[in-house]
Structures are given as C-alpha cells and as structure tokens.
Write a structure and sequence with these properties.
Number of helices of chain B: 11
Oligomer: heterotrimer
Shape of chain B: globular
Distance between the termini of chain C: 60 Å
Structural class of chain C: alpha/beta
Radius of gyration of chain C: 22 Å
Structural class of chain B: mainly alpha
Helix content of chain C: 25-40%
Strand order of the largest sheet of chain B: 1-2
Chains: A mainly alpha (about 350), B mainly alpha (about 290), C alpha/beta (about 400)
Largest interface: A-B, 60 and 62 residues
Chain lengths: ~350, ~290, ~400
C-alpha cells in the first residue's frame, strides 16, 4: 500500500519533512481560531503538560531513571512562579527562567544521591517525595500560602495583538513549548542522545566508550526537572491559582502515564501523551466516575505489552505503510527506541537487593 | 521513662502494620525477583472481598479462609495473564506494569464498592492490657504473634523446602532452572499466589483498626517499602523487624523532633531509605547480590 | 515529526460546537445563557472519584430535589437541568469544569461546587464571567468575607468559624475551664475550624493544651491520638473527615482516656462514622447540626423529612436516604429553588439580587433556622444546634446558637 518511496535524506525526503513541519505549524497556529475558549484552554493545557512530559521522557525513556516524583518538580516550578508573581512585581515572562533554574537546581540536588539508587529504589524515593510535596507545601505556609493556596493574576492579551485572553495564553504556551521540543530533539539527536540510550541499555558498555555516567545522569535529572519547572510556570499562567491539592500523587502518575502512552523515548510522543491525560479523564468521567482510573491503568499495561512505543509507535507503523523511506539508518537515533529485552541477571541487579551500582 | 516505653510499644504496634504488607513484598521479591507496586492494592481488593462475604452473611472465619484461597488463585492468575508476558523485560517495564495494576485495581475497587469507608469485623479481641501503666492492645499483640509465625513459616519455606529452593532458583536464574527441570512458570505463579495471600492476610488484620476504604493500603505502601528496604528485600524476618524499627522511629520522631511533628512523618521512611541505601544497601538482614558484569 | 502532523490533522478538523468566537456570556437582551422558557441549566463540579468521593452523595440529594420539583412543573414552568461533572477534588480539574460548564454547556449559574481549594481555584474566573456562583459546598469563611471582591459567590452551610464558636459557647456553659486536646486535618478545613476555635476561646478559661495535625494520606491517626491522650486534657475537639473521625473514636474507646468529645459536623455522620465504629462507642459524643438528621427518630413524623425519604427513594433509589450528605443536598437544592422562585427576571443579575435578599424557612432545616442573607451579610446560615449522641441517635440539646462569623 506504499504511496510513496523516498531515499532517506534525499532532497525529496527533505522537502517532505519540511512540508510536514509547515503543516504542523499551520495547524498549531489556527487552533485557537477554530475553537471556542474552553476547547482552546484544553489544548493550551495539553501544551503545558507536553513540556513536563517531555522532561520526564528524557529521564525515563532516554536515561532509564524512573521517577514517580515529577509532579513535585512541577509543583516547585509552579510555586516559584506564583510566589514571584505574588510577592514581587516582576514581569510574568521572567518567572519562566526563574522556575526553570530553581527546578534545575532541585533536580541536580536529587540527581546526585539518585546516582546511588537504582530502578525500584529511585522509584520509591521519588514516590515518597511526591507524597511529601503537598504536605511540605502546607507546612511552609508563610511562603506558599498553605492550604488557602495562592491566587495570581493571569497574563492578559496585549491590546496590539487583537487576541482574546485564551488565545493569547495558547500562543504563549506554544511559543514556549516549541523551542523546548526543538531543544529536546537536539539533545537527543546528538551524541549525547546516543549516550543516554547506551546508558539505559547497557551501562558497562557505555562506560567503555568513555561516557561519563555520573555527569549525564545527574544532568538529565536537572534538565528533566527544568522542563517540569517551565511547565509549572505555564500552568500558573493558565490557572491563576495554585494549592497543595493541585499537586498530589495523581499528577506524577499522570505524567508517567503520558510518557508511556505517548511513546517512551520519543519526542513527539510527549504531545500525544499530554493530549491523552487532558482529554481521557474528561471523556471517561462522562461515562462513569471511577472509569478514568481503570482506563489509565489499563492503558499503561497495554502499552507495555502491545504498544511498546505508545501512540508514536502506532503512528510510525501506520505511516511506514504509506511512505517507505529507504536508506541507511545512521543518524536516526529514534530507531533505537525498540528496547532489547534485558537479560535476567541484569533485571535482578536492577531490581535486586542493594540497588546500588558497584 | 514510662512515656518512652509507651511510645516504643505504640511504634511496634504501628510497625507491625507496615511489616505485614512488607512480608508480602519480600515474598514476591524472593520468589520472582519482581517488586510489586500493586501489592497493597491487591491486599485492599482481597479485604473488600472478605468484607463482601461477611456482608452477605458468611461467618467471619469462613469468609477469611475463602478470601485467602481466592487471593491465592487471583495472585496466580495475575502472574499468568499480566506479568508472564513481561517478566523478562527490564525493571522499568515491570515497574510500569505494576504501577498500571495499582491504578487499575484501585479504581476498579472504587467502581465496585464505592469510595466510602466502612467497618471491618475484627478477628482479634478488642481490649487492651494494662501492664505497669503501659497500654498494649490485644489486637496489636495478636498481629505481632501472627507476623512472627508467618515470617517463621516463610523462612522455613525458603530454606528448608524443595518448593522454596525451586522458587529461589527460578527467581535468580530462570534459564538455568529450566535446564535442571524446574517448572519456572508454575513456580512463579505459586510465588505470586502466596504473596497475594499474605497481602490479603495483612489487609484483614489491619482493616479493623484503619477502617476499610479504597485507599487504606495506599498510605501503608511507602512505609512497607521502607521496611523491606531496611530489613533487606529478601529477608522475611528483616521485613518484620524493619517494620518495627520504622514504626518506632516514626513515633519517637513525631514526639521528640518538633520539626516533624505529626504531619511530616512521611519524611521518616524517606530518610531511612536514603540512609540504608547509602550506608548498607542490602539492609540489615539481606544477602548481597553478585552481579555478573 | 511528520507523523505528528498527519495525526493531528483529523483532530483539528473535528470542530466542536463551542460558544461563538472567543467570548463569555453577555447574551441577548431577553434572557441570559442557560435560561429559556422551558429550562434552567445549572452546573456543578463534585468529587465523584478519588479520596473525597463520599461527598458525591450531596449531588444525588440535590438532583433528587430538582427532579421532584420538575415533576411538579418546575419553577415558573421552567425545568431545572442540573449538569454535574467529576473533578476528583483537584482544583485544576474544577477550573476546567467551570470553563466547560460556563462556555460549552452555557449554564445559567454554578451551583454547590464542592471543596474549598476547588472553589478558590474557580471563583476569580466565575466572577469575571459574571456567572452566579451559588451555595458552594464548603464551610470556609472566605465566601462571605469580602462580597465586593467576589459579588457572584456565596456560601451556604454554616462556616467552620461559626461552628467553632458554637463549640466554644457550649464549653463556656458546660465546662468553662476545659483543657482541650485537638486533632485536626492538615488543610484549610482543619485549620479554619481550629483557628476559629482558638479565637473564640481567647479570653475564657478554656485552653488548648495540645493540637495534633494529620494528613489525609496518612494511614492512621493512632500516633496523634496517643499523644493527645497523654496531654492531660479533659476535652477532645475532633476536627476530622469521616474515616479519621472513626479512627479517633475507636482509639478513645480502646484507651483509658475518656474526655468530653466534641466531634465536628463533617465527621458526625451516623452512616459513615458512628455505625462502623460501633454505636455504643459513640455514646456521649457532642456535635452540632443545622438541618434535620434523617435518622433521628424525633423527626419520624415530620412532614418534610417524610417527604425527603419518600422522594429520595423515588428519584434516587440507589442513594441511602439515611446518609446525611443526601439530606444536605436535598436541603441546599431547596434553597436554590427558593432563590429561583424569588428571581424576578430570567437574568443572572436578577438571580443574584434574589440570592442576596433571602429570608426563607425550609422544612428540612432545624426549626427556626432560617436561610437569611442581605447585601451585607453573605452567610446564609449562621446558627447551629448542639446535639448529643445517645447510643442510638443524635439528640438535639438546648436551642439554636447564633454564632455569626463576622
């Protein structure tokens, strides 16, 4: 059923990719003009979550470090932004780098001890952090507003733009998200990306080619958290309110679900994962209230069996039927996505007693 | 002094709750090499089944036995159907599957039984003993005794029975085990079944005190994981003692360390996990793993 | 990246029938959105799933009342269409729901949204949209404090500060030198009540000798109860939600400590708390109420309560009519209908006018406990009555205590 055959990296291929990108940009830009404010706000939320999910994917999908506490960094970013907006007069755009830096630091701080923890243990520690987050937010209530939360003014559309507020917020998110995606894609495509995948699949081999595990892993933690921080700031722009209840364990679980469902170790997957966690709870709640949890859980499991690369994997295979790309596979890091099942000994080591690397 | 002793006793009582679930975690790990995030939720589901039976008029003793049996079957079924396809995969995959199971079971229970809390009938007597000014509840004593018996049985199982040996072999090296004739699949199924049964036992022991609702095991899970980490993930007696230590640490910290107070006690298991893994990664009683590089 | 494009294309083409263009309410000159000659649309966001889902029963009670009214012809010939959406007790979801209800469903007013943080998350938006934000299901004192800042928002139930004052009044009468130990939930609800209590006892002989917080994610409050028991207090103020109320009562039953037990209204449910714990263990517990307890024998022949039981059975058969939350929903539903009846024109401003000038009696409220508002008083219910559990039912004591929160 192949419609088209191109040589990889040929001019035709490049034109096809460019056309695709242009179409994507066009779609992204018309969205706020096609739909009403509610729907637009949902898409904006999807963009915000996509940034966070992208960060988590760097950590989990590419460097194989499990984190159940991504929501905690998201909260740190959100509160950094909210506190700055509430206490100081700085322009809201400046809260984005502030949140990113704060979270980067926090991520590094966690990344260092995390080096000593493997698999399950890292998951446990991050789980405990996620549980502790709302509690700590309440405890330091002079800073965070405690249970009352913090309400801040949302950015409004400047007069010259002629946009409605919801449209402006959408574009704001878009304008922040796109460079983040581009940055992540670049990170992954360069040698660094290869190293991360090598780390994930076989650390010993990675060591022999001179990849410095410690630096990479820690830095990935920092970067991943920074992404969450940026998303947190965008989140505040869109909600105008933060409270400890906004950052429970559910948030961390949702991000993880989004990573898996969207496609582990894919870049575009983050967007699909985010769409999944924005729209599925709404649809399933309309059917039955307890159902969304059942769907989440089932989707996670199904993705691990069948849809190993999540939605992205599905789309790729569908696309591959239509357009055949011939040529060498050098330079295509994404192809390394399919995981080779790791041997039993390694599995035991990963989940095993100690959990500390030799 | 009296207050201190009372705190320690209280700590052991609550630590027994953590230890009960930790035993199930240890069992699953020892026999299958997998750590099951959904263990608590499975225990919760089993407890609800027991509750349903009692509501339906079944006498408590019979309901409990039936539940344990059903949990055994359920555990085996979950292994066969859900875990078997991914059992050779990497830790991340397994973690995500068990996490998915956690979310799924939790929501399914809510769907079936609703989210309100309810009472669970007690199997153990209700009163407290008063010894030299210190109060100990009979229920706690009962739980401690049951825990010790069960952990003793587990030690017996693993060290002194063929099944136990087969389980340890299958968990450590499935390929070689098959070569010597061990039915790895069947052994794993039994491991899961036993762990589910243990979880159910933990649930029904603890539910009278905690009151039964869909989330009652959720809070316990992190503490139980910490207990298993502290005690060593492959040591049944470690799980029990680990649980006690955590319970006591938490109770004392809540009382003596002002910063922690009553609401930040979640920091205690967190700190313990960190410290254990940095200082003595195998836990107090666990055995070091040899990794073939 | 190519794939992402092709996949998104169909999604974008699915155009939804949203409100025209990007804009809020402000409709035609005749009537506001959500109101026609035949129908009034109300919207509510509730936690039908997640840890707070027991409160979802409130929605069922309100829905039953609306069905009852609709069968009798509705309000001025308009039937009430109450649209409810789950928010899992998460503020961001509540905000999404509010946007959906207002923009997509085009409801006339938001009714009885549940949860303090959830309402805090949406009230700026709702007021900006000039949509009535009525009878919110939370006892926080925020809703009436600054009417000018959020003119479209109003609470309903006696707020926690009022409740705390009632306990303080009770103690002043019964135990003027009480030494109080407090267990409280570590969130807005718990802190609000505790704060109100501490303020109310300020210049009396009553003292708080120990206060212990807990989180809803904690498995048990046994450690806190242990500490409170050893504090030397003779009175226990129990500010908890049902599961933890039960644990606290059970802990006291098992111990030697037998204080005067003040249990907050939220935790006083016979169905969710006292029955699981054992009715005998609850004997002597004191709480407060403001509407008629559906299980109280003294209202067995009360016309309003009989009607309530019958109608719940008819319109919401799966709901347990003995559940106080259902009665809450039924009663607040009646309040809404009274406001609608009082509304002169089918506009939001007219509804707000009615809401801010109410003086009504409702059959299922305690006798003489009226719903009263004025343009300056944003607290519809400010009186509660002490009740004591006698081992079988809650028995009302004394008179209604007026305890405005100022």
């Amino acid at each position: 059923m192949t419609l088209l055959t191109v040589e990889r990296d040929s001019p035709k291929h490049k034109r096809l990719k460019l056309a695709g990108l242009a179409l994507l940009v066009l779609l992204a830009v018309i969205v706020p003009f096609l739909f009403g404010p509610y729907r637009v706000s949902q898409f904006t939320l999807a963009l915000v979550y996509a940034v966070a999910v992208l960060g988590l994917n760097l950590l989990v999908g590419y460097s194989g470090q499990i984190s159940l506490g991504h929501g905690a960094f998201f909260a740190v970013g959100a509160y950094t932004c909210a506190i700055l907006l509430d206490r100081t007069g700085i322009h809201y755009l400046l809260t984005i780098p502030a949140a990113a830096l704060t979270c980067f630091a926090a991520g590094l701080a966690l990344g260092l001890p995390a080096l000593r923890l493997r698999g399950l243990y890292l998951a446990l520690v991050t789980l405990a952090i996620a549980i502790a987050t709302p509690v700590l937010l309440r405890r330091f209530d002079s800073l965070t507003g405690g249970s009352q939360g913090l309400a801040v003014e949302q950015p409004t559309a400047p007069g010259w733009s002629g946009l409605a507020d919801d449209q402006f917020l959408y574009f704001l998110a878009l304008v922040v998200a796109v460079p983040m995606f581009w940055f992540a894609a670049g990170l992954v495509r360069r040698d660094v990306g290869r190293s991360l995948i090598a780390l994930r699949d076989d650390e010993t081999a990675a060591k022999t080619v001179g990849v410095n595990l410690a630096t990479f892993k820690t830095r990935t933690f920092g970067l991943s958290s920074a992404f969450a921080g940026v998303a947190g700031a965008l989140f505040v722009f869109n909600n105008g309110f933060v409270a400890p209840e906004s950052f429970t364990l559910v948030v961390s679980f949702s991000f993880l679900a989004a990573v898996v469902v969207g496609g582990l170790a894919t870049i575009a997957g983050a967007l699909f994962g985010a769409l999944f966690i924005v729209f599925v709870p709404v649809w399933s709640a309309d059917v039955n209230d307890a159902l969304s949890g059942v769907i989440y859980g089932a989707a996670l499991i199904a993705c691990m069996y069948v849809f190993r690369s999540g939605i992205m994997g599905l789309l790729r295979s569908a696309f591959a039927r239509l357009v055949e790309v011939k040529g060498s596979t050098t330079g295509r890091v994404d192809d390394d996505v399919e995981k080779v099942p790791v041997g039993d000994a390694d599995r035991r080591a990963g989940a095993g007693a100690g959990g500390v690397r030799p | 002094m009296e207050r201190f002793v009372q705190l320690v006793i209280d700590g052991i009582a609550i630590g027994s709750i953590y230890g009960a679930l930790a035993l199930a975690l240890v069992l699953i790990f020892r026999s299958t090499g997998i750590v099951n995030f959904a263990q608590g939720e499975m225990a919760m589901f089993s407890t609800f089944i027991a509750w349903g039976l009692v509501e339906g008029g079944v006498p408590l003793g019979l309901a409990l036995i039936t539940t344990l049996a059903l949990s055994f079957l359920g555990g085996m079924a979950i292994e066969r159907v859900l875990i078997r396809p991914v059992e050779n995969a990497d830790p991340l995959t397994i973690l995500i599957v068990t996490l998915g199971l956690f979310i799924l079971i939790n929501s399914a229970a809510g769907w079936i039984w609703g989210f309100e809390n309810r009472a669970f009938p007690r199997a153990l007597p209700d009163d407290s003993a008063d010894i030299a000014g210190i109060t100990i509840s009979y229920e706690s004593i009962g739980i401690v005794v049951i825990l010790l018996i069960v952990s003793g049985l587990l030690v017996l199982l693993f060290q002194h029975t063929k099944l136990g040996l087969a389980m340890r072999a299958a968990a450590a090296n499935p390929a070689s085990s098959r070569l010597v004739g061990i039915s790895v699949g069947r052994t794993l199924m039994i491991g899961w079944g036993l762990a589910a049964t243990l979880g159910a036992l933990a649930g029904v022991l603890v539910a009278p005190q905690l009151f039964l609702d869909v989330n009652f095991m959720g809070g316990v899970l992190v503490y139980s994981f910490a207990a298993a980490t502290l005690g060593g993930f492959d040591s049944p007696k470690g799980a029990v003692i680990g649980g006690w230590i955590i319970g006591v640490a938490e109770t004392l910290a809540g009382d003596y360390i002002g910063f922690i107070g009553s609401d930040l006690t979640i920091l205690v298991p967190l700190a313990i996990i960190f410290v254990v893994l940095l200082v003595r990664p195998n836990g107090l009683f666990g055995s070091p793993e040899v990794v073939r590089a | 990246m190519l794939i992402a494009v092709l996949a998104l294309a169909p999604a974008a083409c699915g155009r939804d029938d949203d409100s025209a263009g990007g804009g809020g309410g402000g409709g035609s000159a005749k009537a506001d959105p959500g109101v026609t000659d035949k129908e009034i649309k109300l919207g509510g966001s509730y936690p039908f799933s997640g840890p707070a889902s027991a409160y979802g029963t409130i929605a069922k009670g309100a829905e039953a009342y609306f069905d009852f009214v609709n069968d009798k012809g509705g309000v001025d010939g308009r039937k009430i269409n109450f649209i409810t959406i789950d928010d899992g007790y998460e503020p961001p979801r509540a905000l999404q729901n509010a946007k959906r209800l207002i923009q997509q469903e085009q409801v006339f007013a938001l009714f009885n949204t549940l949860g303090t943080p959830n309402n805090l998350a949406i009230w700026d938006y709702v007021n900006q949209q000039k949509v009535p934000h009525l009878f919110v299901a939370t006892g926080a004192s925020d809703w009436g404090k600054d009417i000018k800042a959020h003119p479209y928002t109003i609470g309903w139930q006696p707020n926690y500060v009022t409740e705390a004052r009632v306990y303080s009044e009770y103690l002043k009468r019964e135990k003027p030198n009480a030494k109080v130990a407090v267990l409280y939930q570590n969130d807005g609800f718990g802190k609000d009540l505790l704060g109100g209590f501490e303020k109310a006892i300020g210049d009396t002989g009553i003292k708080v000798v120990d206060k212990e917080p807990y989180n809803v994610t904690d498995p048990t409050v046994s450690a806190q109860m242990g500490r409170l028991a050893r504090s030397g207090a003779d009175t226990f103020l129990n500010i908890t939600t049902p599961k933890f109320s039960a644990q606290a009562i059970a802990a006291i039953a098992k111990s030697d400590w037998k204080p005067l037990h003040l249990l907050n209204n939220v935790g006083a449910s016979k169905t969710l708390v006292l029955t699981p714990v054992g009715l005998d263990n609850a004997k002597g517990i004191v709480s407060t109420g403001y509407f008629k307890d559906p299980e109280d024998e003294q209202w067995q022949d009360d016309a309003a309560v009989k009607e309530y039981h019958a109608m719940i059975k008819k319109y919401s058969p799966r709901t347990n009519s003995n559940d106080a939350f259902a009665m809450y929903g039924w009663t607040v539903g009646q309040t809404m209908v009274k406001a609608l009846e009082q509304m002169k024109e089918p506009t939001r401003d007219s509804l707000m006018d009615a809401v801010r000038n109410m003086d009504v009696e409702i059959g299922t409220m305690l006798p003489n406990n009226k719903i009263q508002t004025t343009p300056d008083d944003g607290y519809p219910i400010e009186a509660m009555q002490i009740m004591e559990f006698d081992g079988k039912n809650w028995k009302l004591q004394g008179d209604l205590i007026e305890a405005a929160a100022d």
